[in-house]
């Protein structure tokens, strides 16, 4: 076998004697030991590679069944993981896999590689190993483009057997061992590339509209509400800090400073439940536009989603993770939140914060066995009624709008209806995809709202915002009229692929196994 020499002195494999190691792993570790004893590297620093598997396969396309050209232009060195092998007396077959799932057959014959290399292949190579094979591109008698080997080298020895290739991995195994999932399942490899396509599409859309991408701090002195924060301690300053739940306040500071169209794609953190639509760490897009409002933000949001659907080849007809059909074409509906809740309850719903109205809303919630916090006013109750009774029913794209002021403290007052703000949430497939506001830029009103939120936070409301004096200082320099949106990238990919959130995240957070 033409393996690279081992660069380090051989050390005994202490773990190989572990009685808890499964039999197949002990056999593979023994093979690793034999390679080392012969002075061969089971984990080479480098190996011959002149062509990708796709490039080598392309060389063989013009060939006809049984062709074995001898020209130098057909000599290649290819690498890959062995995902199939069959050994016979004088001829061995293997299928190599690399990258996005490209596969190519290699053949080793006694006549071409000699007895020693053929014996070494049979003795040392297992499914899952990475190898380098040098030889001629041919087309087998059955018509399959292959590489007829003249030599080979071990690139990396697999000590753990691959999952069974012809059996589906359980969902639990897929997400806990994503590396194994990527090896054996084409859908997992496709998801990685689709996610990258979506991110490129988002950037392309916003860059084309003149937006500038920036990066803002992950660690913050105050948490922004929306969920229970993750906290940490900065030793250098001896202060407690929170991981950001969103990027909004920093991006608005940038707009104040003159970055009129700004966006960020990054991780945000919310210490909340984990389920098919929620992850404690997720990727969010936020963008803000000077002299925009909730309506320009809606146009931008729709364009981003439609462009991503086109870039991924999904089109406008989708199926969600529950198997329901979604149509992105045509106009997207606008639904005032009180109207939606009223339709679900069969009677008029008002956002008035009067004692009589609050009590009435509490009775309506109790009739539907919906739990409420004692401190909630009309706005919070309306929002809870919507989330429990209406949100999951909105299958087609819907801008749920006209929220009560108390539940959207960063949105500006509605231009025609007192007590409401100009804000919407885009709901698709019964899942919130993106919230948006005509942003509140009046520093006096913003201070009043944040002071009220800070009082709630001090009283133990983890979803209330803390007072951010530096943000208020920025607004006092005068912020232009502004529209902004936050969109969960993972949920956008859920929409486009019809999967749960754990499938869209390469390495999702899971509860440790006992």
Automatic annotation (TrEMBL):
Protein name: Lysine--tRNA ligase
Aminoacyl-transfer RNA synthetases class-II family profile domain boundaries: 193-512
Gene Ontology cellular component list: cytosol
Gene giving rise to this polypeptide: lysS
Gene3D superfamilies associated with the record: Bira Bifunctional Protein, Domain 2 (3.30.930.10), Nucleic acid-binding proteins (2.40.50.140)
Top-level taxonomic group: Bacteria
Positions annotated to bind Mg(2+) 2: 432
Family according to the record: Belongs to the class-II aminoacyl-tRNA synthetase family.
SUPFAM superfamilies, per database record: Class II aaRS and biotin synthetases, Nucleic acid-binding proteins
Cofactor requirement: Mg(2+)
